[in-house]
Amino acid sequence: MNDWIIISPDGTTISSNEIIVENFQVLGFVQADSVVDAFEKLKEEYHYLKGSGFNEVWIYQIISGSPYVTYLGDDSEDNELKDELVKKIINILIENGYYDIVFDFRDDDSFHFEGYSDAFQEIRVDVDGEMVKVYDRYIGEKHFVHMGNFRFAD
Predict the structure, then answer these.
(1) Which of 107, 9, 121 is nearest to 58 (CA)?
(2) How many Cα neighbours within 13 Å face the side chain of 106?
(3) What global pTM score does this model have?
(4) How many CB atoms lie within 10 A of CB 29?
(5) I want to staple 144 with a disulfide (CB 3.0 to 4.6 A). Which of 14, 41, 45, 135 is the partner?
(6) How far apart are CA 14 and CA 29, in angstroms?
């Protein structure tokens, strides 16, 4: 079985500064043996798409389960440093039992992720020089629980 993403070029979205942008819309993800089977599974599993106005669909096999996350901001050295830190932090989280990790946002020296260990969790990572402090919480709870300190390895 292969993983597939089905998208449509028939879409628009509103950006955070309220600009309407024509773009692609993700219609669904399926597991199938072939592109034809993926299309049939899309119709089966996402039956509400019939009559939704989406007409043309593009089907791509997903080769890697890890998305490349980047930003449309400037290509400053700060963004490159942040991207490098995010990669290192994701590796630390993977080594500590998290999976399906997605970088959410950064504020001050904290990086916020979503991921799974035994349940869906929000993960906050504080970086102070080479020291990394990881906090997590189950989505239903209101506080973060400190789970460990780590240092970046070279």
Answers:
(1) 9
(2) 14
(3) 0.44
(4) 15
(5) 135
(6) 23
Distance CA 86, CA 78 (A): 12
With a CB cutoff of 8 Å and minimum separation 6, the contacts of 105 are 111, 112
Residue in this structure with the two tokens 């043309």, named with its chain if needed: 56
pLDDT digits (tens, 9 = 90+) for 102-132: 888 887 778 888 888 777 778 888 887 778 8
The proportion of the chain whose per-residue pLDDT surpasses 70, expressed as a percent, equals: 79
The mean pLDDT value for 26-45 works out to 91
